[in-house]
Please model this.
Amino acid sequence: METSRISDARGTCDACDVVIVPTRQGLEAVDILRRGAGEAVGPVLHDDGRGTLGFLVPPGTAAAWDVPGSTCTETDRRDPAPAPRLPVPGPGWLLPPEETDPATDPADLRAALGEAARLIAAADNCR
Model:
């Protein structure tokens, strides 16, 4: 895994947790968050090889994360300013840290992922 890309987020969100979701649902959630009034999306990693997106969220989010179809991983907090250690090899930034808020609010992300799942289900039922 190339941690240099992830290290770019150190000053943005020290020791962020990472919510991993399927790419399709994650892309819908990014759109929902970017359209929302007052809602913002933080840095997002994309791993095309595994078909996942990783949303950086504030530390401690993993302890209470319970959204079906996603996982939230704690990052390595042993260093004074650790970079997230993701369970996805070779990710690249979909939304780099320098272009976004420090981290995505977990409540906003939870709502956006729920709405994205409903939109995807509705679209799939129209086929």
